[in-house]
């Protein structure tokens, strides 16, 4: 019988220490390992860049929770994305990505990897005809999807996008950071590779930066593993250990994030100063039914736009007391972000630019009454 998600989160890669019986595996800070004679490695351990027991434990956890055979842990989400792309693509290859992708991903592809000869096109992933046309127009090797997207909260049909990619011989990569493996498992819908910024919901406590790549294909995994070792952007032992700790409570945290976000979204949509609320849990969201079909719940991210334009969004962002104005998302604490000048500043002036009247809320696991009261007093400042 297949174990449930929360059981796997707590036990996958987490066998008690064989020497002491410690229930929590120890943190291995060693950079190197004694050899039993030249080339006589103990359990394959040689040097910290290549292998580390704490990182191996996290990778086993990640693979188990995303339903993949292979997982690789990196020093950041962008390091994970860079390693993936350089492992599987070559100069002259083409990437199609969503026209509201995370600004850092777009910056990596359009400004860093373009110098290496990688080209790209940004399209609305919910428009199948536009997606197919963009794939056909280039030497597309990867289709890059975020669902829900950051920060416009668009929902895309993973299975349909996978079919469009595969029909052209391309791979589908899904950034599953917003949903987390608890709410959505893209590999089960036909995706080839899943990426995460583990800094966000997987770590969950805003204390460890990291990234991950999870997949099933053995040949592709070998190439990614080589880049992980040869380039060396690996997660450090402490970050891996903290991420493993956070991952064990992912299920219970996501339940609370989702219920709090739903309450906040419903409250916000009734406020006179609000122009629109973007949250897939709301029935009027255009992706609501699709999100219900491919997600366990609707997550903790809410985007909201204001009738008063940029000035109103800035005023609210700078007036909250429980919501902290900060980059990032997915921690136990509630955060508020002004994407146009913060997380997505790198895409200003492009077709990926975020509306200037929009705020992105990472709804935490505090008492929801306190979160709504905080938003209420902030909106009263308008």
UniProtKB/TrEMBL annotation:
Region (Disordered): 1-21
Top EC class for this record: transferase
Nucleotidyltransferase as UniProt keyword: no
Keywords attached to this entry: Pyridoxal phosphate, Transferase
Record-linked SUPFAM superfamilies: PLP-dependent transferases
Entry EC number(s): 2.5.1.48
GO MF term (any one): cystathionine gamma-synthase activity
Pfam family, one: Cys_Met_Meta_PP
Cofactor (UniProt): pyridoxal 5'-phosphate
Annotated PANTHER family: CYSTATHIONINE GAMMA-LYASE (PTHR11808:SF15), TRANS-SULFURATION ENZYME FAMILY MEMBER (PTHR11808)
Family: Belongs to the trans-sulfuration enzymes family.
The protein's name: Cystathionine gamma-synthase
Organism lineage: Bacteria, Bacillati, Actinomycetota, Actinomycetes, Micrococcales
């Amino acid at each position: 019988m297949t174990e449930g998600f929360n059981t796997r989160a707590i036990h996958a890669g987490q066998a008690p220490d064989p020497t002491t019986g410690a229930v929590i595996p120890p943190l291995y800070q060693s950079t190197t390992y004694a050899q039993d004679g030249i080339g006589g490695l103990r359990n394959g351990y040689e040097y910290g860049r290549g292998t580390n027991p704490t990182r191996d434990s996290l990778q086993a956890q990640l693979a188990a929770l995303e339903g993949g055979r292979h997982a690789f842990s990196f020093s950041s989400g962008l390091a994970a994305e860079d390693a993936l792309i350089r492992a599987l693509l070559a100069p002259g290859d083409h990437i199609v990505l969503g026209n509201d992708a995370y600004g850092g991903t777009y910056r990596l592809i359009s400004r860093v990897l373009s110098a290496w000869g990688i080209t790209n096109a940004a399209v609305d992933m919910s428009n199948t005809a536009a997606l197919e046309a963009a794939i056909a127009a280039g030497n597309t090797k990867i289709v890059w999807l975020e669902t829900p997207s950051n920060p416009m909260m668009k929902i895309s049909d993973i299975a349909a996008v996978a079919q469009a990619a595969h029909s052209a011989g391309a791979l589908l990569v899904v950034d599953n950071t917003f949903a987390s493996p608890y709410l959505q498992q893209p590999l089960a819908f036909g995706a080839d590779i899943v990426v995460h910024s583990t800094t966000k919901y997987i770590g969950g406590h805003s204390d460890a930066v990291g990234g991950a790549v999870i997949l099933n294909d053995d040949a592709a995994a070998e190439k990614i593993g080589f880049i992980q070792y040869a380039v060396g952007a690996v997660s450090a032992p402490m970050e891996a250990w903290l991420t493993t700790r956070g991952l064990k409570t992912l299920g219970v945290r996501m339940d609370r994030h989702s219920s709090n976000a739903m309450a906040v979204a419903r409250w916000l949509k009734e406020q006179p100063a609000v122009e629109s609320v973007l949250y897939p849990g709301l029935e009027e969201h255009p992706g609501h039914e699709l999100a219900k079909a491919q997600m366990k719940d609707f997550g903790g991210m809410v985007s909201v736009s204001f009738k008063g334009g940029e000035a109103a969004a800035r005023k609210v962002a700078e007036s909250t007391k429980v919501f902290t104005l900060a980059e990032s998302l997915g921690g136990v604490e509630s955060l508020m972000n002004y994407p146009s000048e913060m997380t997505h500043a790198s895409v200003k002036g492009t077709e990926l630019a975020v509306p200037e009247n929009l705020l992105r809320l990472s709804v935490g696991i505090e008492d929801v009454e306190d979160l709504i009261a905080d938003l209420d007093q902030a909106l009263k400042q308008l």
